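A.,

Following up on our hallway conversation. C-alpha cells first:
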C-alpha cells in the first residue's frame, strides 16, 4: 500500500493540507514522476515552516527552474504564432498551453509545460510546416496520414521543449472534432496576434479523450495527476448547462463511463466536487479499479482484461460508433491503423506505461 499512501499524501499536500506523518521521499518521488512538483511547491507556500529544510529547498529550486523553463517555452510559442500569423493561420492552443494562455497575469503559473500543443486545420498543415521551418523550428519528427492527430514535432536548439503540431484534437476521430466543439473556441490575443482557445468544457472533453482513450488510461488505470489538477480547476469554471453538454458530447456509454470515473477521481483525490447519483454510481467502480491498478501494478493487466470483459457491450457500441465517425470524417469505415496486429501492439504499449505517469 506504499504507492496508495504516497498518492493520498501527495493529494493532501496539493490541497494545501500536508499530513503530519508525511513520507516526503515517497511523496516527492510521485510528484516528480507526475510532473506536479512546481504545483506542489505553490500549494505548500503557507506551510514552509512545517517542511524539512532539505524538502523546502528542493521544492523552491524546482519551482524556480520550472518558471524559467516555462518562460523560454512560452517565448518559443510566441515566435511560432508570429510565423503562423504571417501566413494567415490562427492556431488553437490545446492542453497546458490553453491553460497558460488564459491564466491571470498577476498570478504565477507553476504548472509544468512539457511541450506546446498547437492545432491547425488539416488543409493548413503544409503551409504551417513551411512557416515554422522558415522561422527556425527544425523538424524532429513527421507523422503521415489523415487519421494521425499530431503531424509533426518541431523544435529549436536551446528551446526546452517541442512544438507539437496537430491537425485534429486527440481522441477517436469524429468524437473530438464536431462542428459544435469548434464553435466553442474563443479568440484571444497573444502579444497582439490572434490565437484560439477552447472553453473550459471543451478542454475537459479534450483531456478526457486524450488521457483515457488516446493514451489508454481508461484500461491501464492510475492517474495523470497533472491533468487531474487541470480538470479540477476547469470544472470550477463549468456551468450546469455546460456539464449537461459534456455528458451528451461523450457520445458513447464507454466515454461517459470514463467521464464519470474522472469526476469521482476529482472528488476523491483533488477536492470537493458535487456529483449526481448516476455519476457517482457509474464512476465509482472504475475509479476503484484505477486505484488498485495504481497501488498494485502487477494487477494492471488482469484488471484491464476483466474491465474489458465486463464492459464488452459498451466496448462494442463504442467501436461501432467510432467506425461510423471514421466513415463520416474520412469517407471510409476502416483504416490500416485499425488492423488486429496494430490494435494488439497498441494495447501492449498502453499497458506497459507505468501507472501514475503521463
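Then the amino acids I'd put at each of the 358 positions:
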Amino acid at each position: 500500500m506504499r504507492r496508495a499512501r504516497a498518492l493520498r499524501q501527495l493529494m493532501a499536500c496539493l490541497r494545501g493540507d500536508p499530513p503530519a506523518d508525511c513520507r516526503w521521499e515517497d511523496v516527492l518521488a510521485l510528484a516528480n514522476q507526475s510532473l506536479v512538483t512546481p504545483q506542489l511547491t505553490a500549494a505548500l507556500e503557507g506551510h514552509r515552516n512545517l517542511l524539512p529544510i532539505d524538502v523546502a529547498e528542493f521544492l523552491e529550486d524546482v519551482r524556480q527552474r520550472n518558471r524559467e523553463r516555462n518562460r523560454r517555452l512560452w517565448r518559443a510559442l510566441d515566435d511560432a504564432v508570429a510565423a503562423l500569423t504571417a501566413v494567415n493561420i490562427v492556431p488553437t492552443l490545446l492542453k497546458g498551453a490553453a491553460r497558460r494562455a488564459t491564466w491571470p497575469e498577476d498570478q504565477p503559473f507553476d504548472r509544468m509545460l512539457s511541450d506546446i500543443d498547437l492545432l491547425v486545420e488539416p488543409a493548413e498543415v503544409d503551409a504551417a510546416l513551411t512557416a515554422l521551418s522558415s522561422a527556425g523550428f527544425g523538424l524532429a519528427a513527421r507523422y503521415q496520414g489523415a487519421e494521425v492527430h499530431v503531424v509533426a514535432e518541431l523544435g529549436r536548439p536551446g528551446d526546452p521543449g517541442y512544438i507539437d503540431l496537430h491537425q485534429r484534437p486527440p481522441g477517436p476521430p469524429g468524437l473530438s472534432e464536431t462542428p459544435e466543439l469548434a464553435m466553442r473556441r474563443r479568440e484571444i490575443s497573444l502579444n497582439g496576434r490572434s490565437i484560439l482557445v477552447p472553453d473550459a468544457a471543451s478542454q475537459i472533453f479534450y483531456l478526457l479523450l486524450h488521457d483515457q482513450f488516446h493514451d489508454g488510461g481508461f484500461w491501464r488505470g492510475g492517474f495523470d495527476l497533472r491533468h487531474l489538477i487541470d480538470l479540477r480547476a476547469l470544472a470550477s469554471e463549468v456551468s450546469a448547462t455546460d456539464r449537461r453538454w459534456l455528458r451528451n458530447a461523450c457520445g458513447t456509454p464507454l466515454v461517459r463511463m470514463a467521464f464519470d470515473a474522472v469526476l469521482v477521481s476529482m472528488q476523491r483525490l483533488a477536492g470537493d466536487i458535487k456529483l449526481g447519483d448516476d455519476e457517482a454510481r457509474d464512476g465509482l467502480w472504475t475509479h476503484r479499479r484505477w486505484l488498485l491498478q495504481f497501488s498494485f501494478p502487477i494487477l494492471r493487466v488482469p484488471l484491464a482484461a476483466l474491465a474489458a470483459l465486463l464492459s464488452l457491450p459498451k466496448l462494442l457500441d463504442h467501436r461501432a460508433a467510432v467506425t461510423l465517425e471514421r466513415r463520416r470524417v474520412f469517407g471510409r469505415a476502416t483504416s490500416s491503423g485499425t488492423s488486429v496486429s496494430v490494435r494488439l501492439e497498441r494495447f501492449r504499449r498502453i499497458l506497459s506505461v507505468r501507472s501514475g505517469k503521463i
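The two ends are 21 Å apart (CA to CA). Curious whether your intuition agrees with the design.

B.
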